[in-house]
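so i finally got all the pieces together for this one. its two components total, 647 residues if u count the protein bits. some of the lines might not be protein, just check the labels. i wanna see the whole assembly predicted at once instead of chain by chain like last time, that was a mess tbh
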Amino acid sequence: MSWYEKLVPARIRTDGRNKHQMPEGLWSKCEECGAVLYGAELERNLRVCPKCGHHMPLGARQRLQGFLDEADRVEIGDDIEPTDFLKFKDGKKYKDRLLQAQKASNEKDALIAMRGLLKGMPVVAVAFEFQFMAGSMGSVVGERFVRAAQVALHEHIPFICFSASGGARMQEALVSLMQMAKTSAALARLAEHGVPYLSVLTHPTTGGVSASLAMLGDINIAEPRALIGFAGPRVIEQTVREKLPEGFQRSEFLLEHGAIDLIVDRRELRDRLAVLLAMLTGRAARVDPAPAD
Amino acid sequence: MNPSNCLDFEKPIAELEAMLEELRHLRDDQALNIGDEIVRLEAKSKALTDAIFASLTPWQISQIARHPLRPYALDYIERLFADFQELHGDRAFADDRAIIGGPARLDGRPVMVIGHQKGRDTKEKIYRNFGMPRPEGYRKALRLMKLAERFRLPVFTFIDTPGAYPGIGAEERGQSEAIARNLFEMSRLRTPVICTVIGEGGSGGALAIGVGDRVLMLQYSTYSVISPEGCAAILWKNADQAPAAAEAMGLTADRLLKLHLIDGVVPEPPGGAHRDRDQMADTLRALLLEQLRQLDNLGTEDLLEQRYRRLMAHGVFKEATPAPPAQSSWQSSVVALLGKETLLGKDKDKDKDS
């Protein structure tokens, strides 16, 4: 015990073991630069580290709420729920995995779709919830995506997708693979009718989602340092048996190889997408009032 | 059937066949009367084949789908089509030899043929990259499909791949985009597209030439979102559980037909396509011509609308509060806009889990 600790009255002394325990969620640590960040401030910053700019995972609902104007948000396809139609069982039943994921994420499935306004411009936006079975695409994801696209088509308003997914959902077997064709066909309809589709790829977007809806944007935008690719790095390493180049399959790598149009910081997405969409649709975007803080 | 080239469960048949072969040889040599014995053994071999093939597990079917003697795309092209002119390259980077394609004649009529191609021996396997295409392969396929569209040639694709190649170069050149673009374009290609899975239908790499008006599967082919080994490695954390994964995924033609994911199963000769390639090709030709005849009766707009609805019908889910169209203005508007039942229409109901 140091001389200082002897001076401190016993009742305000803390046990060394508990010294680092903090209320859950009040503080968090940036896994990139190690900075200790105040939770509320981090949320305000859209879960981007204010110190190093590292983009932390952002939930689908939170993402859409942060992206769309507060007024007039309507969820699309929220009455559609997954079902274990194959009675799929590996170590665990798919039915149980679904229940567990629903409980953990508080969502019915891995895609949230909303019609709303982006700076006053009507848009339809969808976002993948990576917390829900790694954002995997099954029947519900496919159907919600398509219904959202249909709303955009019918109203002739822009369609925006924020992807974060490990790919197709194996527990739905070939039905999940067919969601790739289904979503791509819906996007082909939008293209034929001149409805803009912007794809925002976030960390990570791989497999069947990357090889369908995520790469089909009229404009493909990625968040910084996101892992984006068809095959996962481990699979590639095992196949080619050589070390992968530095920064392989990261946004910056994709930009260099011509696969995406832009890399945009999450905090600027709202502004940049509004500017782009205003030009594509010939509508004017409202200027946001300066933040109140 | 060479016993060194056969699967474990084919061994009893292979042994019988070897005996038969010897006897036939003997008969030629000598004046012994062993005709009765040959007839008896032939019947036994057939009965044995039927018995073994009547109760194949999904894992055994996966093995037949990758059988070393299984006919590949070129084996069918040679037997089904005349005047096949192989065209090469994606006009941008390279010619991918894991995908072949070009115009040919089917029953005298010009068509476009595209297929994955595997190699038979080691050298050829490497040449064909084990049937695993890179982006340039998919882009070549798309180029040929666009060519077909322009000259109104129906497109026939033959699917047989473990999957798209997971390599560094493939990623650099946009494997994802190449596959995605094909799905996008095939869904609206203004000419009939008939796809047949002839061996392994491996995930996105298979689907990238598999979006069409009709999807057929040979009886002992497979089609799945991931290989049984891959699925087992991820979900069971053990690749040895591949037989269990094959069972769980339901990757066989009959199960996929029940799920309305494919339109038809092409019966194979007793013992599988490799036991009688010519008979297999004859069966397939008849079915392809029949499918094409059906599609010929449709105008282009109807063809595309049917294809779209077919794609939109994929998916099984439940609706917590199924809203009648009248209650949801955008749903009925979509129906009005497209003038027909769309994804929300009748097609959907049959797949719905009640």
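The CA atoms of residues 260 and 351 of chain B lie 8 Å apart.
Chain B has a mean pLDDT of 88.
anyway lmk what u think
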